[in-house]
Amino acid sequence: MTMPKMTIEEMIDLSLAEVRDLGNGFYKILKPDPKGVKWDKRWVKYILCFCEECGEITAKVWNNKTEISKFCNSKCNLEYSHKHTATESIIYNDIEYNIKDCPTSLKRIYHNPVEVWIENIKRSSKYKEENRDEINIKGNKRYHETKDLAAIRKRYATDEEYRTRLLTNQKKQRDNRTDEQIQNDKDWHKEYQAKPEVRKRLNELNSLRYHTNKKYDAIFMLRQRLRARLRCAFLSHNQQKSEVSTEYGIEYIQICNKLESDAKEYGYTMIEMVQLGYHIDHIIPLNSYDYTSSNDIEHSFSPENHRWLMAEENLSKGCRLRPEDIEVIKTLPKEIYPKSWKGIIPTTNEKENTHEL
Ligand SMILES: [Zn+2]
User: What is the pTM of this model?
Assistant: First the structure.
């Protein structure tokens, strides 16, 4: 924290007794101290500062954190450095470097920031030139280590924003190639794809891609529905959804996996379930949860709390707890019960009573 700076007159006015001169620019004043334990006033040491820019003399309260500055405030500091900063542009490698584009961090410290800037550029390009092989190996290694292909593929299929970002980046890279690079790429791919083992693998991959895409379309659709449900749940609890769903611990992909394996038990795919008129149902109704508690929000959307239910049944059930639902809830882990239940499933009557309250 910076201590407030005052003019000397203000400082002297504060003093309850005559100001004491300590020499070397230090003075002491007697200040009222309402928080003081023993005394209601105390002596405060201050130092006089002379501003190199405007020539004004100010007084700064002195403690072990006080910085002695050549200036009375940051405005004077800035003005002084503006006056003393070299502003000429420098041409290096046919590029004009001017003060406007210079990094602020350099402008703040150096009197000739453009010169320092170019020195830095020279140094880093020299380093890159000398260590090119090492840098390439490092970059390659990092790329392959972090590249979890399965995860990327899954994200590519389910995350639309990620997909568009990836595609635009790839396009940018493609467009930036020189003619020679383009020809090289073409030749390489031609040769590569002609290999019999590559042909075989590509065919397999294509058929796999066809089948998995069908699954991801279903995931995409269900995600949209689940998101809408979450939004509605927040609204019906008069709450605002302020975080992305993963921040609440909600994983749509896990919910989709659960629903997919349930659908498999019925002998259908997820798309077929939807076409047959099944809805996604929350076994413990969402309105039993407290949507001001992040734990409850997470539990209400745990994969176990989801099931397929015929549309008519789902709509007629509403948010009641039917006896048959209670039987299902008994099979769920108690951790995902609403906090207000305290681990005990309310009977139908109790539930209705709590609703009237
Ligand atoms: Zn000043």
Answer: 0.41
